[in-house]
Structures are given as structure tokens and as C-alpha cells.
Amino acid sequence: MTALLIVLVVLLALAVVALAATHIQYRRRRPTKLPTRSAGRILFPFMAGALSQRALDAALRLARAEDATLVPVFLARVSMHLPIDTPLPRQSGVALSLQEAIEQRATRWGIPVDARIERGRTYRHALRQTFEHERYDRIVLAAATRGNSGFDADDVAWLLDNALGEIVVLRPGADTTIEVPAPPFRESRSRDLQEQLR
Amino acid sequence: MEPRSSTEAESPIKERRRGRYKIFLGMAAGVGKTYRMLQEGQAEAEAGRDVVIGYLEPHDRPETIAQAEGLELIPRRRVRYRDAELEEMDLPAIVRRAPELCLVDELAHTNPPGLEHAKRYQDIEGILDAGIDVFSTVNVQHLESLNDQVAEVTGTRVRETVPDAVLGTADDVVLLDLTPESLIERLLAGKIYPQDRVQAALNNFFTVENLAALREVSLRQVAEEVEHKRVIVDPALSSREDRLVETAAAQAIHDRLLALVTPTPKSQRVVRRAWRSAQRLGGDLDILWVTNHEPSEQEREQLDALRRLASVLGAHLLIEHGDDIAATAARVAEDRGTTYILMGRPAPRSPIRRLLQPALPFRLLSLLPGVDLRIVADRTRRTGSIETQEEP
Hints:
Chain A is of the alpha/beta class. Chain A contains six helices and five strands; from the N terminus they run αβαβαβαβαβα.
């Protein structure tokens, strides 16, 4: 009986030791400190069809240099016929795909991302809403060029008057835009026909 | 034919005599709904059935007018509304005439005040109740639940809507599918609108993008309708057990997704995937944060962002207080009829906690046996990522 009791006690002691060892190992493996929330926030507004790769890379470089969070803001336009708070499933589809692409790129650079979708009657209205809702230190944006429908000179002038913080305007040269893959039914023939009609 | 008494109308025998209802659904004007309805009406008349046109809107299209030739047309009745005289479908005349099949164009039409019903689809119910078969037409943007979606796609909101249930009451729904290119070719050929309106139509509604999106919406709507009908049979002809199974199946068909989030940027990935899944399944999305404390300033900022995101996506953000995340999430899932739960990868737990309590996904699975659970992976962590960051 005593022998059985001794065996039980030994087994229990071994179990406790094993558990403690596993726990210590877990504590060692676990990162001791969660990544700190980066102080700076770089706003990167863009619209569908005008997400400049070079502008994004510039924003990412800046964010990495400053240990800042990149805040990509998709600007969605709400038609005058619709209430301003109407859900936008179609534009959301585009926005989320682009945000996913940005996030993947940013993660490769080790940059935290905090994406947004902002609505407005116009892009400027959406930007104004963004300034009301978000705190930020800098704004990086792509200027419009031929074949790239970014922010034009008037928009930039408006931004200088209305936005706080630094504004970095990039004029992309031979730039490529990041695009959302088209659904299967939208074949190239459709685009060709549409262009002919225009 | 004399209208039947109310007693007769309520009897099961009458229910079986209700007319058969076929709806021709189109993605836009000009796909050929009316033409196809008339074509099938002509075929029925050829087969010896008594077919009449209850209401036809040929829009001055010669092909449509030609297709209606030979079919009896029930004259429209004149109705005074404000200072105008309108021509409307004559419901009492159709019921009196009592044909075997009646063709009624544009079921979403709104009647002027003073008629039997406010909407034409209600007039059609009257015709069906009189035991007359009905063929009718509607465009997808008139369906209530799709009105917002179509309005966003096209920038045009139609005022005349019909409840989606109208499509559900039809015995057959025929989708008139046409590629955007073909429809635009028809438009250019002047088969839809007169030549002077063609350019305006091309600039506004009839773009390839709009039409492709509308086509997708229509196809999805009909696919859902077919899926729904597969399990619904006539309640009068089925046993109680069958009906219970059907009810459960019908409920299960409508997916409702629940995304478990915390007010941190990493939750956006979960919301994104959940929303995409909801779009594919045609279901609603709820976003849930279970908390046991008042939100901090940082959390409040993220919650505001989540709230705005939910609004843009048409999702519902729910905040529930509770110490037990699994129990609280399970309660919300049951209350809201959730069929799918999506969550991020759970944070690593100490071995002692692992011993004491199963992980959140396992607890959810045991608390909600009929609900699918999906753990959203961080795709940026897949092989190929050069540098990976630790999740905040």
C-alpha cells in the first residue's frame, strides 16, 4: 500500500515537473514583447484604377524609414441618387482586393497596415471625411498623369489648403497601376467593344 | 366566368386549381423578355389553349408587335389620374373573360390610385386565384433586395420594386440571358430604343460593365431561386415530417456569416474574407466583438473604423459584453441564425490553459454543432514572404 502511494506521489511529481518544463519552454518561445504600436501614420489615399505602384512603394519606404503605420484609404464615390450611407458592394469588392494587395506588399517590408474605405460624393468629399476620421502625420499620393487617373493639380492645391501634416505628391513616370483581377465573364472582348463604343 | 365565393377560395381544392405562374426575368430592357413571353404564348395557342394578352408594352418594337399578332388582346381600361388619362390593365375584364392563359407584361408596374391593387403583381395574384395561368415579365433591378446593389452598379435607382417573394411564388422562372455585347449590338441596331436615344443609353446605363454586373446578379438570383425551389414542395401535398425537413432546409439555404473580431487592424483581414464569402453565398454578414471591458482610446478608434467599414460593406457590427468568448459568440450565432463563423488564428495559449480548457474553435464547434467554422489564415505568412512581421 505504502509502495503504491510512493509510486503515485512520484508520478504526480514527474507530471508537475513535465508541465512546468513545458510551460517554461512556451514562455521562452513566446515573444516577450508584442510589437509596439507605431506612432506615425502615413495616409495613402487612392481610388479604383489609380493605385500607382511607384507611389505605393514610396509610401512603404517612408513608412519603413519612420517606423510608421501605412493607412491606405480607398476613396469611394457615392452617386447623388443614393443616400451617402448606402452600402457599396461593388466598390467594396474592388477596395478590399486592392487593400489585400497593399497589405501583402507591406507585410513583406515589415510595415503595419491599417486600411480604410471612405465614402464621399466626390473624391475630395471622401478625402475631407478621411481627415475628419483619421489621425495622420503625412499624406502620400500619386499625381495624375497621362494614363493614370490620380489626383490632378487642383486636387493637390485643395489638399494643401485643407490637409494638415506633410503632403508628398509623387508624379509617376512610366508607372504601372495595381489592378483588381477582372471576374471571368469580363473578357477582353468586352473591353474592346466598350472602347470602340467610346 | 363568375368570381368564386370566398369559401371556395379557401378550400384545398381551390388551392390546387390556382393558375400556374411563369416569370420571364431579364437583366435589362431589350433582352427579349416580352418577345419570349409572346413566343411561348403563341406556342400555347398553337397547341389549342385559350390565350389572351392581358397587358402588353411593346415599346414600339416592330418585332414584338409582330409576335403579338393573332393573340386576343383584352382592351385596356382608361383611368383618370391627376389631369391625365392613363391606360391600365383591366383586371375584372380578364377574370370575366376567364382564358386558360393570360400574358401580362411588366409585373413591377405601379397602378394609379383607385384600382383594385396598388401593384400589378397583386393584380396577377388575382388572375392566378381565378384559376388562370399567367406569363409575366420583370427586370432584375425591380427585385427589392437587389435594388441597392443594382443602384450602386448602374447609378440608377428604379422606383417600382416588387418583393423577392414574388419570384418565389412563380412555378417557373425563365432567365433571358444575353451577353452584354449582344445587347449593345441590339441597342445599336435600334431594336431597343429609337436611334435618337441610343447614344444617351450607351453613355449611361448600357455600358458593358453595367450589363456584365447585372447579368451576374440575374444569374445568381435565378440560381438561388432554383436551389430554394428544390426543397420546397406544395405544403398541402406533403406530410408534417416532410414539411419540417423542408422548413429546416429552407432556413439552411440562407447563409448568415459571423466574423469574430477584436478592435485591431489585423481583424480587417477576417472581415475582408468574411465579406467575400458572404458575397459568394449571397448571405448577410455580422461582425462581432466580445469584450469584458470598456474600450480603450485605441480600441475606440479601431471600433469607429470597423463601424464605418461595416456600413460600407452593408454588414452589421455587434458588440457584446461577456467573459466567455465562446459562450457569448454561440449565443449571438443562435440568436441571429448564423450558418458560418469566421475567425482569425487564435493567439497561442500556455500549456496549462490548454489543459484546462479546449481552444476557442473547438469550444465553438461543440457549442454550435450545425455551424461551419473557418479560421482565416494570414496569406502574407505563406512561403514566399521574405520578411514577415509579428501580428500585433
